[in-house]
Amino acid sequence: MAVKRGVGRNNNGGVCGLRLPVILLLFFSVLAPLLFLTGRGIHLRDSTDQKDVTTGSQVLETITANMQDLEPWSLDNMRKHPLPSSWKVAGLETSDQNSAVLNEPKDTADATKNASQNKEGNVVKAGDHSPLVDTPVKQQRRRLREQRREKRANQLVQQTDEAIIKLENAAIERSKGVDSAVLGKYSIWRRDFENENSDTTVRLMRDQMIMARVYSSIAKTKNKLDLYQELLTRLKDSQRTLGEVTTDADLPHSAPDKIKAMGQVLSKSREELYDCKLVTMKLRAMLQSADEQVRSLKKQSTFLSQLAAKTVPNGIHCLSMRLTIGYYLLPLEKRKFPRSENLENPSLYHYALFSDNVLAASVVVNSTIRNAKEPEKHVFHLVTDKLNFGAMNMWFLLNPPGKATIHVENVDEFKWLNASYCPVLRQLESAAMKEYYFKADHPTTLSAGSSNLKYRNPKYLSMLNHLRFYLPQVYPKLNKILFLDDDIVVQKDLTGLWAVDLHGKVNGAVETCGESFHRFDKYLNFSNPKIARNFDPNACGWAYGMNMFDLKEWKKKDITGIYHKWQNMNEERTLWKLGTLPPGLITFYGLTHPLDKGWHVLGLGYNPSIDRADIDNAAVIHYNGNMKPWLEIAMTKYKPYWTKYIKYNHPYLRNCNLNE
């Protein structure tokens, strides 16, 4: 306490006298050694046991450098991987010696003691800087590790290659599904699909041309003839430059100059002629005119597509002519097919095929036989017209269907099928029907005739199309027969259809109705009381193309008589318009047994969005519609199912330029 009071009493002299010696004492005793050690680095030496102790940061650096190896950090790792540059060995005078020691272990007494207990058996003597010698066991382990790494790397490379191949194959398969008939010149490799705005310049030029037409019309009405001529000149230049180009990449190099020149004229026109109300009126008139043109082009497109569907391609016509000539050059004894005794054997599988298309008929027969389990039990009854009778015979004489039986007949030789017995034949020969089919209200333009072209479809005038209502008369000794259209492809064995129980019904067919379509009201005129009293408008429709007919039940229920009754009632075409499906729906009403949809998949001639799995799993696929597989307008993605049953290297096909 005396000391404190003394200090308190002598503030000027006593305190200052004591502070300076204390500060100096603290500096020399504590801070000076710390500064010395910090500047030099802390090196604790032991003359016999230790040399250097690395700092914490240096140890971390070494461990980090060796983290790429998944093995435990060890002396072996230090030898395999170069040590970081921060490692220094004290006691070496030259940098060469120091660098040489970097690949050697620290040879302290403690290291010697620990190494002697190491499970690897390595011994390090103090003061010895020679490299460690691995034991044979450790070398063998290292070799095994390296082999495992190499094996794993090879596996990864192989998996990568396999994955790339799978992706490439998948891309190729997807590219086969692109429908060129629908998409035209579409290609994912074209430059115009590199970005979303690939047609920006093209659209700009079109917009300029629209405004040029508007202003030219206004200029003419306001008697500004100089501006009118200038607009017409620029408009023609833009039209020549644009042509049929759809993407910027296809535009000529002069396009920017044309755009600039047009822009200047439009700017001038806007200053002199712009009137909001007048411009709006002109644009509205142009829109209405364009709408009329679109409707007209749609009608023309419909007309041309129907025309293409109804015509016979040159190659098929050539094939028919060449085969006909070859047939009639054959001796009579060589015109007969073998195994004619099978034609009336009811225990075999009989098919009815009515066609005037040789190539289409060959696909039906070939696909059926190729997928049949017992081809020798299948019998094909082909009926054609007199024009194609020789060609059909010649083709199957040259290309017999293996062990199956085939027979070709001419519908014109069925003497019982005459106008006195068949109402539709009598109607087709009448003057009123000829006028209805051939004149079709005398259309004066292409677009006007598009709606009437279906009336002039040749199949509606051919008895081949109506012969399906006379199956018991054509094949009186058969019990069951499978009716096939010529635009189908068989993909599975069909003998299971003969085992289907029709439950007393006459017709076995696949139904086609959905929630609101392909029902009776689509095909029949329910405004007529005869139709309305006898049929349900919501009754489900079914498809021709693959039908199993029980001919015994047919005869019992007099199906042909029912058909004749309704055909006579429709002489004025007030019950239905065209075709054989509407009278078929009427004739087999209540007498049709629905088959599983897997037997028959339809729509390959008009529907581009059929599920590929449904097609692949179907027993029969049907190209109903205008886009038949033998026409150029066929959908590309469906065509291979048909073409794979044609041998395009056949001499007759090559001579007629028929190819895939």
UniProtKB/TrEMBL annotation:
Pathway: Glycan metabolism; pectin biosynthesis. Its main location: Golgi. Residues 111-120 have a biased composition (Polar residues). Keywords: Cell wall biogenesis/degradation, Glycosyltransferase, Golgi apparatus, Membrane, Transferase, Transmembrane, Transmembrane helix. It is a single-pass type II membrane protein. It is found in: Golgi apparatus membrane. One of its GO terms (cellular component) is Golgi membrane. Residues 100-155 are annotated as: Disordered. Coiled coil: none annotated. GO terms for molecular function: polygalacturonate 4-alpha-galacturonosyltransferase activity. The chain crosses the membrane at residues 20-37. InterPro entries: GAUT (IPR029993), Glyco_trans_8 (IPR002495), Nucleotide-diphossugar_trans (IPR029044). Pfam families: GAUT_1 (PF25557), Glyco_transf_8 (PF01501). GO terms for biological process: cell wall organization. Its EC number is 2.4.1.-. It is an enzyme of class 2 (transferase). Belongs to the glycosyltransferase 8 family. This is Hexosyltransferase. It comes from Papaver nudicaule.
